[in-house]
């Protein structure tokens, strides 16, 4: 049943009433759909440098560095954001990896008296291109699913998750941290 075209009026003991019709049911599964990976972040109205919102920055599709940070949005950490393996992995483990990486990063920033942490535009562009290149080597970007944003009218078609594997992704995150957070602008 498409409740966008015919909204549910009421749940009654006999089932679901839509207009004058009652649809009998024993079990009601409510799958509301969702704006995966970007929706929760863009709806928070996060404002970056120059007054640009995250929704504006992502108007043509999400861009990030490692799925963790966005150029122009200092000190914003996006846990399991677009460009990370997140939704294609064991989510609790991926969340844990991002939280640990973020906590280690914040500890590094404090030890070094760094007040601003921000992905560079170049790192963001290169990572976003890499995520797209890996995805385009598969059929996944051709699917009309929430992975590509096709469940949200007007959302740009972009395969948002990193398909390069959790192991290589973790290794890349560790390498970047070991190199003093390469690809990030750190300022006092």
UniProtKB/TrEMBL annotation:
<dbReference type="InterPro" id="IPR050775">
    <property type="entry name" value="FAD-binding_Monooxygenases"/>
</dbReference>
<keyword id="KW-0521">NADP</keyword>
<protein>
    <submittedName>
        <fullName>Cyclohexanone monooxygenase</fullName>
    </submittedName>
</protein>
<dbReference type="GO" id="GO:0004497">
    <property type="term" value="F:monooxygenase activity"/>
</dbReference>
<dbReference type="InterPro" id="IPR036188">
    <property type="entry name" value="FAD/NAD-bd_sf"/>
</dbReference>
<keyword id="KW-0274">FAD</keyword>
<keyword id="KW-0285">Flavoprotein</keyword>
<keyword id="KW-0503">Monooxygenase</keyword>
<comment type="similarity">
    <text>Belongs to the FAD-binding monooxygenase family.</text>
</comment>
<keyword id="KW-0560">Oxidoreductase</keyword>
């Amino acid at each position: 049943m498409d409740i966008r075209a015919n909204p549910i009026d009421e749940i009654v003991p006999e089932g679901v009433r839509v207009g004058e019709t009652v649809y009998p049911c024993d079990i009601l599964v409510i799958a509301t759909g969702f704006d995966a990976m970007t929706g929760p972040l863009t709806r928070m109205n996060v404002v970056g440098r120059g007054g640009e919102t995250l929704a504006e920055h992502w108007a043509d599709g999400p861009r990030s560095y490692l799925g963790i940070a966005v150029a122009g949005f200092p000190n914003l950490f996006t846990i399991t954001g677009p460009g990370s393996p997140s939704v294609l992995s064991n989510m609790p483990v991926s969340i844990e990896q991002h939280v640990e990486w973020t906590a280690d990063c914040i500890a590094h920033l404090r030890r070094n008296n760094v007040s601003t942490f921000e992905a560079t535009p170049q790192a963001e562009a290169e990572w976003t291109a890499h995520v797209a290149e890996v995805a385009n080597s598969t059929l996944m970007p051709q699917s009309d699913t929430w992975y590509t944003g096709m469940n949200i009218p007007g959302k740009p078609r972009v395969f948002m998750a990193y398909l390069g594997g959790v192991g290589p992704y973790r290794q890349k995150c560790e390498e970047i941290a070991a190199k003093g957070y390469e690809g990030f602008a750190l300022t006092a």
